[in-house]
Amino acid sequence: MHVRARFVDEGCTLFSKRIQRDARAGLTVGGSPDLIAKMAVHLRGIMFADVYANPGAYDEDELIETLTDAILRLVYGATPAEAGH
């Protein structure tokens, strides 16, 4: 339980703080920063759980690239490349 708490709760808190900062700057999608952060942390957690349950089922580089893009789209509405950064 300690690992899960650190992964979800503490990770979500740190991520949420970054989202709140970016939201104040008008850089994120609309919605509650806490909710957006929790969604992103859970998406990451569920995907990693699937990877651990099914070793070798995914190309690791493609997985990280796709997961990163999915989380960036969730939080910011676009990837940095799409946003011109």
From TrEMBL:
Gene3D superfamilies under this entry? Tetracycline Repressor, domain 2
For this entry, the protein name equals TetR family transcriptional regulator
Q: Which organism is it from?
A: Winogradskya humida
